[in-house]
From TrEMBL:
Residues of the signal peptide: none
Domain UspA: 1-145
Highest taxon, organism lineage: Bacteria
Organism annotation: Mucilaginibacter aquariorum
Coiled-coil region(s): none
Protein name, UniProt field: Universal stress protein
Transmembrane intervals: none
Length: 281
């Protein structure tokens, strides 16, 4: 049976990511395996948040955290609805050890975690902390902000860089998310629509989507990206996007893409989950 690994620091936003993982695990027919990653202790989080400098008498264990997450998920469902099986691996809280354990488990199909308590989601994706997870992962990593509604995605966007590997990444994404029956838009942000070479690559990807993928609901869009101010508005054209997927790229390329919403006058924040797919050989 497939398993979703959830990395949590027991914080509030990590709880929401765990609840989201439990929600999608039902459709994916997957189990949940919890791992605690070492960040700030819960008591220290309260101090940083400006709350009284008192630490909880009892820091919850990972097993207790898991039990509470199951109770919360159960309270949201019908009385006879099944809640995915949840277990915990408390062996280590060091990210290197946790990721080594995860990558040694063939049943892991997805890693779910939350962005840090401070900063924008795009900024977290570019952080050293997030990159340590992404660099180690051999399965997709899903980053879930606290603003994410607990519902199944109806529209998923894969942001293509027109690489040869993109078709394999789209196939992997489609296989992972097939239980949701969501539409999948493969989009390329075209900064030079007059470039014949770019148009040729777009046409090839579009043909590959129809010829090489045996799945419905997948379509290609070339999106002119000529404005000086870059935003995320294109994600919600025609229908609101509920999950953005990208393939792992060198850090400078990832930085260029995710900093597109940071302009001199205003910052456009990403508020939807982002999935980073590992680059395959």
């Amino acid at each position: 049976m497939r398993t979703i690994a959830v990395l949590t620091d027991l914080s509030k936003n990590a709880e929401h990511a765990t609840q989201f993982a439990l929600h999608i695990a039902k459709k994916m027919k997957a189990k949940i395996l919890l791992f605690q990653v070492s960040k700030e202790p819960v008591g220290r989080q309260l101090v940083l948040a400006g709350m009284p400098e008192s630490y909880p008498d009892h820091e919850p264990s990972l097993a207790e955290y898991g039990n509470r997450m199951v109770r919360l998920a159960t309270a949201r469902t019908f009385a006879d609805a099944d809640v995915p099986e949840v277990s915990a691996d408390p062996a280590s809280t060091e990210i290197v050890d946790v990721m080594t354990t995860i990558m040694g488990m063939e049943e892991i199909c997805l890693i779910v975690t939350a962005p840090g308590t401070a900063g924008d989601l795009a900024a977290y994706i570019l952080s050293d902390e997030c990159n340590r997870i992404i660099d180690w992962a051999r399965v997709p990593v899903l980053l879930v902000p606290e603003s994410t509604p607990l519902r199944y995605p109806e529209k998923i966007v894969f942001a293509s860089q027109l690489h040869e590997e993109d078709i394999n990444a789209v196939a992997e994404l489609g296989s992972l998310m097939e239980n949701f029956a969501a539409e999948l838009m493969v989009a390329h942000l075209n900064t030079d629509p007059s470039d014949a070479g770019i148009r040729q690559k777009e046409d090839q990807l579009n043909r590959d989507l129809y010829k090489k993928l045996n799945c419905g609901g997948v379509y290609f869009r070339s999106i002119p990206d000529l404005g000086r101010k870059k935003s995320w508005d294109w994600l919600n054209a025609n229908k609101r996007t509920e999950l953005l997927a990208v393939m792992q790229q060198p850090r400078e390329q990832m930085s260029k893409f995710f900093k597109r919403g940071q302009n001199e006058s205003v910052t456009y924040h990403l508020t939807l989950p982002v999935m980073v797919l590992p680059k395959r050989p």
